[in-house]
Amino acid sequence: MSRPASEQLPRSERKPLYVKVVTQPPLHGCWSVNISETGIGLIATPRRPSEGPHENEPVEMAFSLPDTGAHVRVHGTVRWRHDTAGVGGTVAALGISFGAFDAADGVKLARYLASSHLQVVAAFASDDETRAVRQALDGVATPHFAATAEDVHALLTRGDMAVLLVCGQDESRALALVESLAELRAEVDPTGAGPPSDLASRIVYCAPAAPERLVALFNSGRIYRAPGAWPDPEAMREAVLQAGREHGFRTEQWRMALELERNLMRERALAQTPVVGVGRHGEDLGFRSPPMQRVMEMVRLVAPHRVAVLLQGETGTGKEVLARILHRLSGRGDLPLVVQDCGALTETLLESELFGHVKGAFTGAVSDHPGLFVLANGGTIFLDEIENTTPNLQAKLLRVLETGDIRPVGGTQVRHVDVRVVAASNRDLGEEVRAGRFRADLFYRLNSFTIDIPPLRERPEDIPELARAFVEQFNRTLKRSATGVAPDADEVLHGYGWPGNVRELRNVVERAVLLSRPGEMLTRRLLPPALLNNTLPRADPTGDGSLRARLQQVERDLIREALERHGGVLRRAAVALGMDPVTLGRRARRHGLWKPE
After folding, report:
1. Which of 16, 374, 423, 582 shows its CA 20 to 30 Å from the CA of 439?
2. Element holding 280 (H helix, E strand)
3. Strand 163-166 and strand 118-123: pairing?
4. 7 within a domain of the structure (yes/no)
């Protein structure tokens, strides 16, 4: 395997790519919708809801790139999945982030995306029209010529065609093609709410037709542009490029709508189930350590007040869980809680997602979009990974915090919203400000109430309660009957460094519950080998531990403090401890405190 895709390739825009995709775990009827150098969107028709990979699960994929014949194999992770009832059964939509490619397949994909043009079907073109189409689209699109309606359908069902040019001088033939495609689209997606399909190519009509007929076709959405019969090359080029951009935007807009709908469904489901760490009435469960007791005291103190809260902590420490606790205790618990990962979208898409846009604000903005702040009005919005926002977007967030006023992209009307803002960061925002990567004014506005969440390794008293809570949770969701955590497994859980924090503990318990037999306690044998290999004896807090265990615990604490004091730089920590860096690195790895890049 080569390097991870995120290290190997820059982030790029998504492009249409409708080809068959083979996945492992298997997913029936799986086709790609769009692709970039860092991820892919898939549509499938699973035979049963449990089929195929689900959110946060690994997946292997294999597919071919059109025209080149190149095969790509890649390992990835399911970022989100949405299952809904469709024509003939369930339809599943998935967003996959790429992890690592086989051999040089990542380079193949990058070259394909860099060199690929818009794919265009030109129907019924005469010899003169063929030359005109080639001249108009030279360098910006690749035309594919079809002499019959059957040829047009064959090219469109290939999947990667974004625009259909209808040419020729036979008016009845050209109009019959447009109507037949409209009928097929209605059969595939009667509501028009589904993903852009292989029949959803934008139609640029360049054949003869009466003006009133063209107006009717345009108003009904059957054609996208009608530059007229025999248009000049510039008009044809512009119409095709606009149609291609609209097609690509619809794909992205549909993905965003799916993800928003999925988030809202998830919020409704979570409102009906207890969160690990908080009870129905706000009592804290699983937080028995003094550090987390102090955190919960701060949460209970600030929850009833409309003040922005900043949650800081390592990845996996439970920032989103605390945001839900804040929302539940705030008096706004019956109103929406909207979650947005600020690192998941580009600046333009994130601005549109948060503040909305008006019809016509940009190409493809065919209707008003309210934005998440409007959807969260009266409730809470949780902005995760806020350190990934740009200075321009940070300025707009500051305005919302100070005035409650938002203005959609392309709009002139200002709308006032009452939204509680909870932000989260896995970096020290104070350091980000000093480094010039985060606006100081927004930081000081958020910094009015900051809650630092300690990593799991600093609160081992929470491990047993959290593990038991996760066992109960996964017994319900996985239909298992594990009866608790055995002493030998509990010893392993206590001795591990938990670099992935609570999220890693949750995944470990989920795996163990899944592997357990009916009525069995979770024992050491059900834990991952990596966990066992990185486990060290921990000093017994009762004072009955061995001398060796106590010395190892002291050594671990000293190394951890030195690494934290010197920003994780091993060489500086070694100088401070008077040790050789190689020796320190070996001991830090053994304690689970450091991993080489």
Report:
1. 374
2. none
3. parallel
4. no
